[in-house]
Amino acid sequence: MNTMDILKETGFKVTPQRRAIVDILLKNKSEHLSSEEIYDLVRVDCPEIGLATVYRTMQLLDEVGVISKLNLDDGCIRYEISLNSKDCHNHHHLICKNCGKIMEAKEDLLDNIEKEIQELYNFKILDHDVKFYGLCENCSK
Ligand SMILES: [Zn+2]
Ligand SMILES: [Zn+2]
Ligand SMILES: [Zn+2]
């Protein structure tokens, strides 16, 4: 099944402008783009698009559950697309405090921690969101 079929199945109406936005997200899968950055990239092929359309589309994609948001508390929300809901949660982020670079840690080592917390606090964990802050290889030289 291709991307647009998956989206249609979620009830998302694919218009040419929305398709252009999804294409940009797919092409920049590991980039963690903000709405403004997505807008700048989409405008290259789709100059008539407005920033409001980008905001609205991101909101809709979020509602159908195919993007995840990354909030670094710097006032802008970054997005990444994950069409398979299973891989919506497939990595954690390493954020360089110096240059702002965002890397992805593919290993999820938190299952054991979740188990312990569930037992300790009698709390059913549904998800977690972890960010590691530090210095990237370049910045720690
Ligand atoms: Zn760095
Ligand atoms: Zn990511
Ligand atoms: Zn995790």
UniProtKB/TrEMBL annotation:
- Which Gene3D superfamilies does the entry link to? 3.30.1490.190, Winged helix-like DNA-binding domain superfamily/Winged helix DNA-binding domain
By sequence similarity, the record places it as follows: Belongs to the Fur family.
Keyword rRNA-binding in the entry? The reply is no
Q: Which Pfam families match?
A: FUR
Species of the source = Romboutsia sedimentorum
Read off the lineage from the record.
Bacteria, Bacillati, Bacillota, Clostridia, Peptostreptococcales
The record ties this protein, via PANTHER family, to:
FERRIC UPTAKE REGULATION PROTEIN, ZINC UPTAKE REGULATION PROTEIN
What CDD domains does this protein's entry cite? Fur_like (cd07153)
Keyword Cell inner membrane in the entry? The reply is no
Among InterPro entries, the record links this protein to:
FUR, Fur_C, WH-like_DNA-bd_sf, WH_DNA-bd_sf
Q: What is this protein called?
A: Fur family transcriptional regulator
Any idea which UniProt keywords this protein has? DNA-binding, Repressor, Transcription, Transcription regulation, Zinc
